[in-house]
């Protein structure tokens, strides 16, 4: 029915707006989390970057403030020092990471798009954490291949955040599982993919959601079956699966 379809479509778009980036059933509950626990504690540079990104046409891609807070807490809990990020956009998760790491911490950050990184860069510089970032423009896969080639890089990363092209996540996994430390953590982002992982095949879905859905489903199955890692899928943001390397 046309009416129903429109309602479903508006439901789809609501969850894609910045500020509604949550899979919680109630938007009010999500707002409560943001207003009670996230925004009051959000570092000023992250607030500035979030507001700048909100004006950008692709703002849908940004990490949400609650997920930024989660990443920051996680990095501190595991005493992360040497980290990697695949998929930077304007740098919200990158800045959360850079602020959470000690002064001599490192982030190898990769993105095919440098322009968006450069939008956020002045804020990162002003925050005094740019020296921790080694940004590489271009596709991540060849960079990972080079890193894996050199055995000295094996088992050297405390944390790796993957938030880029979902159709490559399994290719990334094959490589970064060698690069993360035993006991270190990989975070795969968007593993609940807009809730589409449980949507019926005829559900209204944006084209890109439908396209990447099968890759996300395949990734989720592969991670659950991988004996080299312990996993935990969290409904934070659009779903993040934490993988702790076991062997
Ligand atoms: N973590 C970011 C943040 O907090 O705002 C969001 C990243 S956004 C969801 C995905 C990014 O992946 C885009 O900036 C895109 O340019 C980048 N990307 C897409 N394909 C890539 C590839 N093959 N290698 C590296 N980056 C890629
Ligand atoms: Ca993401």
Automatic annotation (TrEMBL):
Enzyme class label: transferase
Pfam assignment, any one: Methyltransf_3
Pathway assigned in UniProt: Aromatic compound metabolism; phenylpropanoid biosynthesis
Keywords: Lignin biosynthesis, Methyltransferase, S-adenosyl-L-methionine, Transferase
Entry superkingdom: Eukaryota
Chain segments annotated as transmembrane: none
EC number: 2.1.1.104
Annotated family: Belongs to the class I-like SAM-binding methyltransferase superfamily. Cation-dependent O-methyltransferase family.
Protein name: caffeoyl-CoA O-methyltransferase
Biological source species: Datura stramonium
Gene: CCOAOMT6
């Amino acid at each position: 029915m046309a009416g129903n379809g429109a309602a479903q479509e508006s439901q789809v778009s609501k969850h894609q707006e910045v500020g509604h980036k949550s899979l919680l059933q109630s938007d009010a509950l999500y707002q409560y989390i943001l207003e009670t626990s996230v925004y009051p504690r959000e570092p000023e540079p992250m607030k500035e970057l979030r507001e700048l990104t909100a004006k950008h046409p692709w703002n849908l891609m940004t990490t949400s403030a609650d997920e930024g807070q989660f990443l920051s807490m996680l990095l501190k809990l595991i005493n992360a020092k040497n980290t990697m990020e695949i998929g930077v956009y304007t740098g919200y998760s990158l800045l959360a990471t850079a602020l959470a790491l000690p002064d001599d911490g490192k982030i190898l950050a990769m993105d095919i798009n440098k322009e968006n990184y450069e939008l956020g860069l002045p804020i990162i510089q002003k925050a005094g954490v740019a020296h921790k970032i080694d940004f590489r423009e271009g596709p991540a896969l060849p960079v990972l291949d080079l890193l894996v080639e050199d055995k000295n890089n094996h088992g050297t990363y405390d944390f790796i955040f993957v938030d880029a092209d979902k159709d490559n996540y399994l290719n990334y996994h094959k490589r970064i599982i060698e690069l993360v430390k035993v006991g270190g953590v990989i975070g795969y982002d968007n593993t609940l993919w807009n809730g589409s992982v449980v949507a019926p095949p005829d559900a209204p879905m944006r084209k890109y959601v439908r396209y990447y859905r099968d890759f996300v489903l395949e990734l989720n199955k592969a991670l659950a079956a991988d004996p080299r890692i312990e996993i935990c899928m969290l409904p934070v943001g659009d779903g993040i699966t934490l993988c702790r390397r076991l062997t």
